Amino acid sequence: MSQKMMLLSATLSSGYGVQGQAWRAPENDTRNLTDVEVQVKLAQTAERGKFAFLFAPDFPGARGDMENQAPASTLDPIVTLSVLAHETTRVGFIATGSTTYNEPYNLARQFKALDVLSRGRMGWNAVTTSDPIAVANYGEQVRPRAERYERAHEMITIVQALWGSWGEDAWVGDVDTGQFLDMDQIQPINLGGKHIASRGPLVIPPSEQGQPVVASAGGGEYGLGLAGRYASVAVGSSTYDFATTRQEREMYRSAAHQAGRDADELKYFTGFMPIMGSTVEEAIRRRMQMDEHLAPQRVPMLGQMLGLSLDASRADQPLSGPQLESARANPADPRSSRALEIAYQGWTPREILAHGVIDYAPSPVGPPEAIADYLQDAFEAGIADGFWLQQATYAIADDFVDEVVPILQKRGLYHRDYQGSTLREHLGVPRQYGQDPRVS
Amino acid sequence: MSQKMMLLSATLSSGYGVQGQAWRAPENDTRNLTDVEVQVKLAQTAERGKFAFLFAPDFPGARGDMENQAPASTLDPIVTLSVLAHETTRVGFIATGSTTYNEPYNLARQFKALDVLSRGRMGWNAVTTSDPIAVANYGEQVRPRAERYERAHEMITIVQALWGSWGEDAWVGDVDTGQFLDMDQIQPINLGGKHIASRGPLVIPPSEQGQPVVASAGGGEYGLGLAGRYASVAVGSSTYDFATTRQEREMYRSAAHQAGRDADELKYFTGFMPIMGSTVEEAIRRRMQMDEHLAPQRVPMLGQMLGLSLDASRADQPLSGPQLESARANPADPRSSRALEIAYQGWTPREILAHGVIDYAPSPVGPPEAIADYLQDAFEAGIADGFWLQQATYAIADDFVDEVVPILQKRGLYHRDYQGSTLREHLGVPRQYGQDPRVS
Ligand SMILES: Cc1cc2nc3c(=O)[nH]c(=O)nc-3n(C[C@H](O)[C@H](O)[C@H](O)COP(=O)(O)O)c2cc1C
Ligand SMILES: Cc1cc2nc3c(=O)[nH]c(=O)nc-3n(C[C@H](O)[C@H](O)[C@H](O)COP(=O)(O)O)c2cc1C
């Protein structure tokens, strides 16, 4: 029990998977976008796998290749998670919410209501929203980074103060005396900054974990400042080798330390996108099926990674000797060296791509043991406290939970059951109510 | 079937009832505020009663006598209704949302996501938020009425345009061709006014009723202008006699007509607060139990209504002959003449109050037949299209559904089952998608 174990999480997206054409995969119904039962099933799978949380990235806007790819986010994170919280009992949830395009009172209220509904299983991924497509939906142009993060600090401060504005023992509810609340313990916060203000109090009692966990994603100098001060979860950026990832984790840890906290209070998660099958060949074949239609865009991208001119008409021919000889890993793309390594093994461009070499996260390939080996190596190399499963298609979550999780458990790397009932307990981070007195 | 029947709705509050001390009633657990199952049960009761919708008033703030009374609103309407939508199949929901303290994109997204989740059962009660306690939670002071309503028009226009920005047949989802959306049918709205703007589109497909219904409450010149243009439901203000209520209904109907719509597209609901028992005496006794602790405040209020000086020490003595002789109905309070009438019958002040004479809506008293008689008279007098049950305590919704509804059905005044599955069908109002082309 005292041995440190890895944590796991998975992605809540629009109901298909993080691969933009997953909606065409045979196991997905094309109408999953509006079928909340698909999300309920994912949450139950994550719970069966004793995952710490489902992570719901969110962009309030229509971006990317909308003609051919399903939207990336759920219809609305608060609406979807309200249902999932009600249909599960243990798994946690981290939903993304903008610090720039929400009123602190509204955001504080919805997240704390969800925290109470879920009995202490909610987290808030606080993002500043810098995508021009998203900000246009609020009639704006992208605000300068410094301004966005200044507001983000105000926002988190006010939200946490509102969360703490109903004192932990304020709820008397004495039928005989008729006292419902001890109003000495429910006081206005009267907080305001340059951008936003709120008087409070917020009339929502504490949840089983006190208040929602704060999470942060994205890094950068400003992002680290935010995460170091307030976050219990940091979701790492797209990194592909152990050294870079471990370095990012260290940056987060020292940001927490600099803010006056214990570095262990900030759990760092890094992404992975497993490609599973009973053998490497089968795993590749399954992924090729799903990626079937992506060759026209992706084969030329692979060419750029290898310094070769490639197009989709050559997708199924192994690279020639002269091609392999002149191939060079593109130093500007951290995924290139792995692509080159796989090319040397003699695969065709389509097969190389099916190894996930242009996925947004490292993609271990093969049978369950191979996936478990990757996670074991990564965890033992100290690159992360937890791993964030980005399932190309939702079905991979089931495969992973049913086939990889038992191996990790057998190896003593992963818990056999939840030890507590709240997200804070799952993460092993301290209870917090209101603002953190150590952080100014 | 072709005979016009009344519609019914009930109140979704914080889990006890609209009487502020309902949390002390023996049938309520003092912790109902955080127990969503209580709300689920109410929704199922309303559905058993074939109600058109549950109505969730909402004030984003802590107001009133918080020490002794439970909060009036649910923890958060979107969070609560997401669960209720998932746990029911027919009953509709109308949630209150501020036109002043929300971004149109956020509000449009959450309500349409809920409309999709509920398969077309959502409505939005658009309010401008003028309570100083609520607006202080947004760091503001109350805005002038003209400004609030100018913004409200912009808000509803933009929200409805966003709702319609995903064309009704835009969702192709053709696995073979790989086309997910027909982007010709999904276009930015590029709408902006003096206060707010949004580019869009909103990436949520139509629900079974197209998009949520708009509702309006509160009246006044400005409120009528809003309701006439956009609303399918108007919830009337506190009126106590048939003539006044019918007049308010007519004002709403002519506002709709003036906006270029058919007056029948705007359904007017008026409130009622039944006090039920197998006899009048038992009904009064039950209500007295619940109001037990209110005498100190309410007996003097009754005195003011009757032009008498009364205090709680006299709560249980019938009014004396001289008192009855000098009593006069206070012309400034429309509830006074009924209070006087009941006083003449010889009841004590506490008993007069237990007739609901200072409730916020007319309060018929007695056995189920008496409640049904009241609704029949009111409906046949043409005062409303529907009645909004304000249950003093949640349990009254069960009593009403199990005992009064069957009488109304037997009398042919109320439907025996839902005819359709959407809120628009329940109300008998036309489908709408995007903005109403008749309204400018
Ligand atoms: C793993 C990860 C997840 C992210 N999730 C979101 C998200 O859900 N929504 C969002 O608007 N931005 C998201 N971001 C973007 C970051 O919040 C941040 O805006 C971005 O890294 C750009 O940095 P900047 O804000 O310093 O310009 C994510 C970033 C990373 C690395
Ligand atoms: C039946 C009814 C229900 C109402 N519900 C709400 C509500 O839930 N939230 C709110 O802020 N105001 C509510 N109001 C207040 C009105 O929206 C409106 O603000 C009020 O009548 C004052 O009018 P004004 O906006 O013209 O100043 C309600 C009013 C009535 C009559």
Describe what this molecule looks like in 3D.
Chains A, B: One of its GO terms (molecular function) is monooxygenase activity. Chains A, B: This is LLM class flavin-dependent oxidoreductase. Two copies of one chain form a homodimer. Chain A is built from 15 helices and 14 strands. Chain A is of the alpha/beta class and 440 residues long. The longest helix of chain A has 19 residues, at 145-163. In chain A, 38% of the residues lie in helices and 12% in strands. The site of one flavin mononucleotide (FMN) has 16 residues of chain A, from helix 6.
Keywords:
eight-stranded parallel β-barrel; monooxygenase (chains A, B); TIM Barrel; homodimer; alpha/beta; NTA_MOA (chains A, B); binds flavin mononucleotide; LLM class flavin-dependent oxidoreductase (chains A, B); two-stranded antiparallel sheet; 440 residues; 2 domains
Give a brief outline of the structure:
Chain A has helices spanning 36-48, 77-86, 104-117, 132-136, 145-163, 220-230, 242-258, 280-291, 295-306, 321-326, 336-344, 349-354, 368-380, 395-410, 423-427; strands at 7-11, 53-56, 92-98, 122-127, 171-174, 179-181, 191-192, 197-198, 213-217, 233-235, 267-272, 275-276, 365-366, 386-389. The first copy, chain A, is an alpha/beta fold and 440 residues long. In chain A, strands 1-2-3-4-9-10-11-14 form an eight-stranded parallel beta barrel, surrounded by five helices. In chain A, strands 5-6 form a two-stranded antiparallel sheet. Chain A has a two-stranded antiparallel ribbon with strand order 7-8.
